[in-house]
Amino acid sequence: MEQPENTRCGFVALIGAPNAGKSTLINALVGSKVSIVSRKVQTTRTLVRGIAMEGEAQIIFVDTPGIFVPKRRLDRAMVTSAWAGAGDADVIALLIDVHRGLDEETQSILERMAQLKQRKVLLLNKIDMVEAPSLLALTARVSELVKFDETFMISALKRHGLPKVLEKLGAMMRPGPWLYPEDQISDAPIRSLAAEITREKIFERLHDELPYQITVETDQWKELPDGSARVEQTIYVMRDGQKKIVIGDNGNMLKSIGTSSRKEIMEAAECKVHLFLFVKVRENWADDPNRYREMGLEFPKK
User: Fold this and answer.
1) Of the candidates 152, 157, 142, 64, which has an alpha carbon nearest to the alpha carbon of residue 103?
2) CATH topology of domain 8-175
3) Which of 46, 55, 206, 291 has the fewest CB atoms within 10 Å around its CB?
4) CA–CA separation, 123 vs 101, rounded Å?
5) Which residue ranges make up each domain of the chain?
6) Nearest in space to 77 (alpha carbons), one of 115, 49, 114, 42
7) Alpha-carbon distance 180 to 178, whole Å?
């Protein structure tokens, strides 16, 4: 592809505690959905890359899993993945939910961030939820722990302050060619994004009824002669009781999930989609190394 002169390119890792708003932010910065959003903590499991253009700079955002104190094997794999994404980035962007402030999880992240050599920016999110004096006090406390190159006060949901974020990050990217075509917004295969979209729709409807360990796999993506696609996905749960919840009375819950998911998958794929959902019980999948490889995670040995 032909590129203009003086191009810049680099990676920005978004890190933060669970539910700080990283997925909402990366979708807003990229201008399209590349990461699923849920009020259920630890929804993002793998490194999701979203690509934004700012003038002649290509900014590759890495949405990492929320960093928290891991209790299970899957938790440990997610946290390891998050720090790996931060370690490989050119710039590390810490996102803090100002309404929650400097809690134990964020303080732990700051302590580890201080040891990293990359350039760092601070993003204070949901600024519309607190008063200005509280924002200034939080900024001062955080800045005492880590030296940041830039500090931004934003609202990812309302997209307040984001143009300035893109402008500054674009200037921080290194001179060099773009790694992706100018119109590409993500490096995630459509099969993977489709599975994540369905998982998001499950959490939207069954937030309190299901554990976050539920997973979705796209088993088939077949392009049909008329330009549409037949998509088959399997929703894996760990108990028979969870399977009944996902299916619902007379299959109504599964139909609702499928209808909502199909609409978003069609928007992402830019074609008509025929979506078929199946629900299966797969006990102890969180201890199966193959499942981790499918999610792009390293399998913790213990």
Assistant:
1) 142
2) Rossmann fold (3.40.50)
3) 55
4) 12
5) 8-175, 190-294
6) 42
7) 6
C-alpha span between 193 and 273 (Å, rounded): 14
- CA atoms within a 13 Å half-sphere pointing along the CA-CB vector of 116: 25
Name the CATH superfamily, with its identifier, for domain 190-294: K homology (KH) domain (3.30.300.20)
Residues 6 or more apart from 111 whose CB is under 8 A from it? 145
The count of other CB atoms within 10 Å of the CB of residue 250 is 8
| Per-residue pLDDT tens over the stretch 16-28 | 887 778 888 988 9
Q: In 3D, which of 97, 100, 34 has the Cα closest to residue 62? A: 34
pLDDT at 33: 72
Token couple for 156: 């990812």
DSSP-assigned letter for residue 66: P
Which amino acid type is present at position 131?
Answer: E
Over the Cα atoms of the chain, what is R_g?
A: 20
Tens digit of each residue's pLDDT (9 = 90 or more) over 141-188: 999 999 999 999 999 989 999 999 999 999 999 999 998 888 888 777
DSSP state of 20: S
Q: Which residues contact 250 (CB under 8 A, 6 or more apart)?
A: none
In terms of DSSP bridges, do strands 57-63 and 8-15 run parallel, antiparallel, or are they unpaired?
parallel
In this prediction, residues 116-132 reach a mean pLDDT of 90
Say which DSSP state 240 is in: H
Global confidence as pTM: 0.66
State whether residue 217 is helix, strand or coil.
strand
C-alpha torsion angle, residues 38, 40, 42, 43 (rounded to 10): -40
Nearest to 121 by CA among 10, 13, 8: 13
Work out the end-to-end distance of the chain between its first and last CA atoms, rounded to an integer number of angstroms.
45
- Tell me the helices (H) and strands (E) count for the chain, helix number first: 9, 10
